Structures are given as C-alpha cells and as structure tokens.
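FAQ: What does a multi-protein file look like?

Like this. Sequence, then tokens, then the next protein.
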Amino acid sequence: MNRSFLSRPCSRYAISNLIPGSVSMNTLDCSKLIGLATLTVTLFLTTQAMAWTDNITETAYVNSICKLEPEAQCSWAILIDTKAPGVDMRESSLASARLDRSNFERANFSRAIFQLANLKDTNLMLSNLEYAHMHGVNLQNANLMLANLTGASLFDADLSGADLRGANLQGAILIKAKFDNAIWTDGRVCSENSIGQCN
C-alpha cells in the first residue's frame, strides 16, 4: 500500500461520514482512521459471537463493584445463588452476569439490561421486569409466575421449561425466543420447537 497515502490527512468527507464530530481534521491521518475502523469491526464481530454460558473462567467475570441497588453496574458479575427477594435494581446493567439459581422474588428490574445474562433456575416470581432488555438471556426453568414483562425484549432468549403462569407479556418482544416445554401464561405446556410463541 502507498505509505504516502496513509500519512496524508483523510478527506473531510470520509471522516465526517465515519465518525462525525468526534475527531480533529488536522490530526487524523488515513492510517489512524483505518486502524479505528478495523478496531470497530473487530469489536462488533466479537460481540456478535458471544452468548450466555455455564462456564466460569477467572478472566471472564471481572466485576467486583456490583451492588444490589438501583442503576447498579453489575455486568459480568457472578451472583450465583444470590438471595435478594424484593431487591430494587431498576435500570441496572446486568449484561452477561451469572444469576443462576438466585431468588429475586418480587424484585424490581424495570428497564434493567440483562443482555446475554444467565438466569437459569432463577426465581423471578412477582418481579417487575417491565421494559427490561433481555436479548439472548438464559431463562431455562426460571420461575416467572405473575411477573410483569410488559414491553420487555426477550429477543432470542431461552425460556425452555420456564413457568410463565399469570405473567404479563403485553407488548413484550418474543421474536426467536424459545419456549420448549415452558408453562404458558394460561397454564398450558408449550410443545417442543415453540419459537416466538407457545405452540
């Protein structure tokens, strides 16, 4: 590649279309812009490949500042077997957190971010999950009886075997969500391969 091209300032058009208002026109050359674009694409592809997991490694979960309170920063935290019925964690970030086998009965998680979190076998009975972001969450065998899931995003979530009796799913996004053998809001058991709805 022509090195003189890489050391020149990039055109105003290229910069303003890729990262508007975030860089100085005088200091950013093309090599830096290409490096920034490469990093952005790498982060995007890495994020797309991640999913919830049952494995725990020493480096995967590094959050040591998580507190059970509103607007908490608990992404990547390990909270397995936590007993916190009635806890208020509205608008908290719990992305990729391990919450398996925990008791959050009557908890307030309204507008919380759970993306890719593991909530397998967790008790969320009577909990407020209104408008929670639960994309790709593992809710296998979770107790969601009488939970408020109004407007929650359950896109690509796994609710296989979950108990949803009496839960409010009004306005919830269920696209690609798995409901294999789940107990639906009306008490019927969903069949295998129930995707996006209870069959």
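And here is the next protein:
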Amino acid sequence: MRDPRYLISYAILLSLPPIFEILGIARLTSILAYSYIMSIYALSFALLLGYLGLLNFGHALFFGIGAYVTTYQILWAGVPYPLAMLASMLIGGLAGAGAAFISRKAFRGIPFAFITLTLLLIVYFLYKRRELRAISGSEQGLLVPTPQMFVSPLIPIMASLIIIAYMVVILIESRHRGVVASGTSRVSGTYLSRNNVTWLSAAALILSVSTYILTIGQMSKPEPYRVSANLYIVALITLYLVHMAIKMITETPVALIWIAIRDSEARAETMGYSSFSYKTLGLVIAGCFASLSGSLYISYSSNINPERAFNPILSIYGLIYSIIGGLYPIEGPILGAILVSIIENFLADYMGGWSLVIIGVAFIVIIWLLPNGLAFYLWRARVGVIKGITRRIARIKSRE
C-alpha cells in the first residue's frame, strides 16, 4: 500500500461525481457509493477466507450489528455519526470474539461455517418477530435521518487532507540514506525515491483539481446532490483507509502465521502458535470492518430492517464478491464487489429478479474459466505487459 500509484487511482475516483452529473448519469454516483460500502464488506469476508481458510456463512451478522448499533446510537442517544461508527466497529469486533468463543470446539471448515450461519439465523428470526419490532422496525424498518456531515461542503476538503496525510507518510518512509559521488566530491545525506516523488506529484495535482471541482460544484447544488456526492466521498475514503489497513496487516508476520494455520493447523500448533488465538484475532478484525460497512450502509439506504441487515444471502454475496474478483491480490474482492454491484443495479432496472440469475451464471462461468478471479489474471497480464515492454527497451538499447 506504500505504492503511490494507489493514491492516483483514489484521487481520480474522487473526482467522478461532478463528471457523472455533467454526463447525465448522476445515479452512478449512488451506485458506486453502494459498491464501495460492499467492497469494505467483501474485504472483511476475503480476509477470513483467503488467509485463514474460514468460510463464514454468518458474516452478515457483523454487517447487521454495525447497521443496527449505529442506528440505535443516532436515534436514541444522539451520538454523532462518526463516533457511532467507531463504537459499532468496537461492538462488531466483540461480536467476532464471541463467535470465535462459541465456535472454539469446531473452529475450522464446514463446522465453523454452519455454526456461524446458525448464529446469524437466530438473530435474523429474532429480529423478524413482532414482539421485537420496537428495536428492529419489523418489515417497515427504522428510519435513519441523514447525518448532518453529509450536507457539509467541507467533506471534499477533509477527504483530501486524509490522502495528503498519507502522501506525507509515503514520503517519510521512502527516504533512504546514501552517498552521491561526483568527481572528487562526495555528498552524504537522506534522499527520496525519484519514482515516488513523480507519482506523488501526479497524485497531488489530480487531488487538487478534484477537490476544487467538488468543493465549488457543491456550493451551487441542492441538498440531495450534496448528500449523494458526500456519501460517495466518505464511502470512497473509508474504503481507502480499510484497504490500506488490510494491506498493511497482510504484510506483517501475523499474516504468515495465518497462512501457516490455514495450510496445516497441526504443524502451526507444533511450532508454538495458538491457532485459536490467531483465528480469533482474524475474526475480530473482520468483524470490525464488516460492522463498519453496515454503519455506512444506513446512510445509503436511510432505512434498516432485518431483511437488509441480517439476510443470509448477504453472506453468499461476500463469497460471490471474493470469487469473482479473486482472493489474491487483496484488491480482488474490491473489483468483484464493484462489478457485481454495478451489474446488479443496472440489470435490475430491465430484468427485475432475473439479475440475480445472471450474476449466478456469471459466478459459475468465472469459476470454470478464471478460477483465481479476475484480479489475479489482470495482475498477471499487467506483469506480462511490463516485462514485454522492458525486454523491448533492452533490445533497442543493445542495438544502439
């Protein structure tokens, strides 16, 4: 994630809402905001499946906890939305620890999948009961007012400051000590990678233009547009931070221990690693991020009910996102969630419920033809193109 090219991608995405408005496809802003929210959910699901081999059919439980706990805090306690999101993440992590404790005797494979599914179904059917409609909202759901932060024209500036802060981190981490020799003089000091400086300069330029367009554009627009654009920005920046966090986690020794446990739990235990502790850690992290996606979802839908929050189909969607996009590289689930969300929304307009059938067929075809997911093959094609260009340049230089 220290690659500054990620920053350029996110900076470009940040500038899309005004462009969609000009092109007359403003609805795509809302669809992409939803896809970013589900990308966070997909990343949390893929973290468990890819690094620990844990298929969590009850993953929607964390999503629903995040959605409902955030709603309760806003409606009943008047907690500011950002603080409510953080508290929901904490409770989602505790729920992950609780699920790990309940599953401790069968913390692997099919038994774990069905234990978590059972936990999800218990909560799902409890929340659908009429006796609990005061806290669940029943079929009508609980109406969530739009948080005031989504009306503010300062959201683009705050988002830019977050990205700029990470630029500074990359610059600091890319410093290296060295010695430059020229003739008889030698100069030692700290130097920056020329490649990083180039990419960061490009990202800063794109970010400046994006921030200006978004800020100026929002001032003359009605409130519904500002809410939609700001939700898009908040969802995108949150996805960026989660993506960065998970990327960093997968580069730590903990990720290597997870892989060792996934490949051979007995061997990992022999080496002195507690499989229960490390699996619990993974489930806690996944629970935090899945709850965060649920917290964001209530701002997108402005309404939450048991069918949306705890539907078991949502866990299947986590699997679909991960398989279509691919578990590796970590960007795969993001690609899968964005593609499926866009296709599903557009197909639903023309084909209704048949859109799910088409997604199911696409799921089967990709498993047959691209078993490692779209992101893996795109990454491999990119590496092949870069190698080909490098060889071609080397050949041209050798002829000269």
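Q: Is there any per-entry metadata?
A: Some entries carry free-text notes. For the entry above: The CA atoms of residues 138 and 249 lie 38 Å apart.
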